[in-house]
Amino acid sequence: MRALQVTGVLVSVGAMLAGCNGDDSSGGGGGSDCGTATIPEQNPTVVVLEYDTDQEVSSYIEFAADGGDTMTTPTDEPSTHHKQVLLGLPPETNVAYTIKVDGDSTCEGTIATERLPPTFPPFEVTVDQPGKYVEPYLLITFIQDPKVLAVIDRQGNVLWYLYADELVDWATKTFPKFHPGLEDDLAIVHATLWPEQKQLVYNLQAQAGDVGSVLWTNWLKENVRAEVAPLSHHAFALNHETGTVTYITLDVRDWFDPEEGKNVTVVGDAFMDLDSDGNKTELMNTWDQFEVEKTIHWDVSFYPQGHDWTHANAVNYFADKNAFLFSFANTNTFMEWSYDTGPGEVYTWSDWHPTKGTLPFTYQHDPRWTTGDNISMTSTPNDGITRGVIYHMDYDAKTYTQVWSHGDGAGYDPVYAFALGENHQLANGNRLISFGSGAVVREVTPDDEVVWELSALPKDIWIGSVQAFSDFYAYE
Questions:
Q1: Considering the entire predicted model, what is its pTM?
Q2: Which of 39, 131, 176, 376 lies deepest, with the highest CB count within 10 Å?
Q3: Structural domains in the chain?
Q4: Which of the two residues, 352 and 205, has the higher pLDDT score?
């Protein structure tokens, strides 16, 4: 940790910073003790500023990086000791800040952020049209080596990051089968912001072994909470009101294979609720919902525990419906599940059919309700092109019609993603599409224009979850 005493210029004086020794209250050059600015270890783009006042007052910080836009921290509660965190800063950048006590400018200072580690995942922004998107930041997970959760801006600056193995000092407690060297296998696949609690929630998992956890942290990377979620994988959903996390976990059982005439080990899935007290409740299990069937992925060695059957890959919660959409890639199936009624509509090839001119959804990821009877997702049909699509679902005819698609249009290259993928509706009407193992993220207009694109290099760096947001301090 690097800490330094920061001096600045006294601008005006209301309640005084304790220890302030300026003799020119009009800002004419008197010196002032502006507190202590700290760059925490393994947080080179975050500045922690602590200072004292001689009265119980509220304060906030106005700051800017190298002449950029001015940002403002939240106003703290009245106190004589103050701690503010400056966020959204690029590495190796000079930051100018002003302490505001009861709304008055009290003290100014500067500090420089530090450099990123040399092992940070390589990527580049290949398309950037700032006038055509809104959210300036993305929370994104990079999988493979190195494995990291990061916040980047649209110009490709890394503003915050957390390596998968950074906070594993508690690993022997949270991983039932933790062993030396397992840190190398750990990955953060999915993460989300929980602004109501000033927290980030993410999962930590390893493909081999009974390993999986759900963790809560903050921008200072503090260990807020950790819960064991054995054999959990892929994505999870967060109920922002209750704090309940719904995650996917493997359910491995023996199944009699009539073709082989013996029992074989098969990997199914279950969906689990994890509440704020740590209690776990099973919502749905594929062994209860479906009959085992062999697919083209049956013998793919994705899970070392056995034959890959359903391969659940998404769990999206919709508060207005009090319901989820669950996705099963291997069987080309997704389904509804409601807290009110339990299992609902099952969308599968055997019962639902595409209308003329519509490619069938295949190996789908991230199904989401949009407007009316429309559902969005990513899909990879037999032509080898992964698309972000929106289908209109006709519940009477059990058919679906493609009403929007991105992936094979003009002006950009098609992408093939054999794993992962997301398709989000943004507030401005654009869609944020991640191509997962294709290592590409795009924001696309309703007219299929790419207004922003990120490409990870080399291609063996996969992208897990992506979330656009507008404000590091948007606490609700």
A1: 0.91
A2: 376
A3: 2-112 (2.60.40.10), 123-469 (2.120.10.30)
A4: 352
